[in-house]
Amino acid sequence: MSLTCPDRMLWIHGIPGAGKTVLASFAIEQMKLYCEGTTNQKYAYYYCHYSNGQDESLPLLSWVVSQVCRQLSWAPSQLKQLHDRGCEPTLSELQYVLELALVRLESLFIVVDAVDESTPRDELVRLLATMTLDSRFQKVRFLATSRKYWDIERFFSGISISISMKNRYVDADIKRHIRSRLNSSFRLQRWRDSFQEIEDALVVKANGMFRWVDCQLHSIERLGDKTKLLSVLQDLPPDLSETYVRIFDAIPDADRQFVSRVLLWIYGDSRAPWPARRAINAKLLLEAVTFDLYGSVPAGGNGVFDWDYLQDLCGCLVTVKSQGRLTDAAACSITLAHYTVWEFLTSSYILSTRVSQFAVSTQAVYRDFATSVLRQALSADPEGEGTDWRRDRDAYCLVLGCALKSDRYLQTPEDLELYFRFLDPCNPHYRRFRAVQSRALHSPSDRAYRFSILKIPTEFRAPEGAEERNHMAEVLLNARLLNDWMPGEHAAYTTHLPPVGRLPQHEVEELGNQRVAGIFLGPDEKAPEQEFRFDGKVWDIKAPRRGSRPA
């Protein structure tokens, strides 16, 4: 869209699996080429994603401002003031910063993919519509993709050029996509004599859905009996929902619990409070599921379940990416293949199908995932040497366990009881914390100070003059540091003090007046890792910050 075009937004809408994200990615690459070498034309892009579970309006605008300022190698003083203030900026403040940046530009192109996946999406839709109409942003051109929901259409119709993904050009692209898959897949080569029949059948039934096509091709790849191809092509599922019914129905009864746990862990990891969205390591995933189903993992990490076995069972439900050989689970990461997989599992529709046993509640999954993480953290080998939370199951569960602090994860008194056992330094697993904390401090790529694990002490000792430690007070300190619990004069937080162990709230408040002592690990001005000793009341102790000095 050029600056001479009166419409400042291009809205591309389509059904799930129609290839909107692929098209948005292509548009971004074209924008990069168009703006390359220019000083006054810049671009920015943002992918909304269901796994973020958040209103994407503020993250979008923050990311746009960040990208534009980096491309300009310049930032207004107002942006530094917002940063120094130490709290999250508002939408209007970020809009003002973007307005200042636009003075230096002739045009700015912004791509926003999957607007409908913002949770909620009202604020994001309003933001895009408002900025499209606001004269302060007349140099900005938007490309937004989404499903055609009525609330999005209500805001975007009349202010945008609307393009449906259901058109002859998409159908032609689907045909090319099918031909590419047929020619590139080793497992499809045995159907070479039937390529034309496969292509014709899929093109007719695809209805603009690339995702649907991929699932059908995957099913044909695994078709063992050549005589059944014709019947398969004559009985293709009409939509994605029926496609998923058939995929799950084909999973053997003996393997269904395994597949359910795999999908739960993939989804749980995608929604976990990591510093950045990422995929779970396949070897770690296999070990975690093995622990869930059998209560332990064989020595040497050789799990009960085989990596090829997982890929064959889950098929087109997951996407595998590799940093080495695809046959090596340790070098691979895995995500859900498409957000419609989880939509299907949590839908009311699945309850009326023959695969209803796979139905899940997102709320229940949060709790199930969290309790699994905490149990596996409690079983961590105290003498283990693994510290890479991306690949080592013990380290992963120790790091993530410190971040599972909201009632989204800890939904019952039993959950809290398990959480406090995890925070108890008297339990053997606690000895593993020091090595993992040390790695977080020494590895810049880990963005150490965004990890909750660095908020708690690496070890506890008896306070000066005391004969023994009060381990319940130590548990409370860890819980307070991770959850920002405060009593008394901070009345707004008083009601959020849960029972610790079996202690009622008023006794928890009194427990916070007990003395505890020990050591934090943290950086100081001269070294990435230093010991910071503490000895004082639970309510008075704070974790060290960057620039602190050892006591």
UniProtKB/TrEMBL annotation:
<dbReference type="InterPro" id="IPR056884">
    <property type="entry name" value="NPHP3-like_N"/>
</dbReference>
<feature type="domain" description="Nephrocystin 3-like N-terminal">
    <location>
        <begin position="7"/>
        <end position="147"/>
    </location>
</feature>
<keyword id="KW-0677">Repeat</keyword>
<dbReference type="Pfam" id="PF24883">
    <property type="entry name" value="NPHP3_N"/>
</dbReference>
<dbReference type="InterPro" id="IPR027417">
    <property type="entry name" value="P-loop_NTPase"/>
</dbReference>
<protein>
    <recommendedName>
        <fullName>Nephrocystin 3-like N-terminal domain-containing protein</fullName>
    </recommendedName>
</protein>
